Amino acid sequence: MQFAMSQNKKIILLIVLPLLVSCVLICVLAVFALPRAMTNVVATDSPRAKQIGAQIAEYTLPPGYREDAGTDWFAMQMVMIVSKEKRGLTITLNQFKTMAVSREQMEAQNRQVYRNLYGNANMPLHYVGERTVTIKGKPTVLTILETTEGVATRQVSGVFQGKGGTTTIMVLGYSDNWNWQMLDDFFQSIR
């Protein structure tokens, strides 16, 4: 009987001990390695954000705009282009490297982002229409949504093929400060 107990203890130790060691190693990695890895994933400086943007597409920044932030995370890259003016437009490019994104999925995701940035989750967004622009030499349909609650704001979004995968473009801003000519020039510069 003593031998069976001892054998069971050995089996338990052989199973539990490696699990405990693995948990400790994972915790150590999470505490020390993850923060360092995350600094390479999220860029809050213009030079790194510019590098991420260049991986998505080549483009010419509109006058007074700069790459402000970026993310390079597994299957997605994102760059945020902002105006140096306080009420300028915000342009976001999101590239999905390994998965196809439908226009409907993209629009649903962009509506949620819009609501989070400019209001609340229940903010009504009204379909205003569509606009066809040229991106990478091809016609691209953009969906235009607006809200008039509070300060009138607009969201324009569409999908094109970036350097490494399906890419969504989303432009957010105040309706009274909208600049279609600047945006058309930017869209046409994307290659």
Give a description of the structure.
By secondary structure, the protein is an alpha+beta fold. The protein has two domains: 1-42; 44-189, Protein Transport Mog1p, Chain A (3-Layer(aba) Sandwich), CATH 3.40.1000. Helices cover 40% and strands 34% of the residues. The chain has four helices and eight strands. It has helices at 2-41, 46-56, 103-118, 180-189; strands at 42-43, 65-73, 76-83, 90-96, 126-135, 138-147, 153-161, 166-174. It has an eight-stranded antiparallel β-sheet, sandwiched between helices. Strand 3 (76-83) and strand 4 form a beta hairpin. The mean pLDDT is 80.
Rg on CA atoms, Å: 24 Å
With strands numbered from the N-terminus, the spatial order across the biggest sheet is 1-2-3-4-8-7-6-5
Average pLDDT works out at 80
Count the domains: 2
CATH class of the largest domain: Alpha Beta
In the predicted model, the low-confidence regions spanning at least 5 consecutive residues are: none
The portion of residues assigned to helices is 40-55%
Number of strands: 8
In percent, how much strand structure appears in the residues?
A: 25-35%
The largest sheet, given as strand count, sense and whether it forms a barrel, is: 8 strands, antiparallel
What form results from the Cα inertia axes?
globular
Stated plainly, the CATH topology of the largest domain is called Protein Transport Mog1p, Chain A
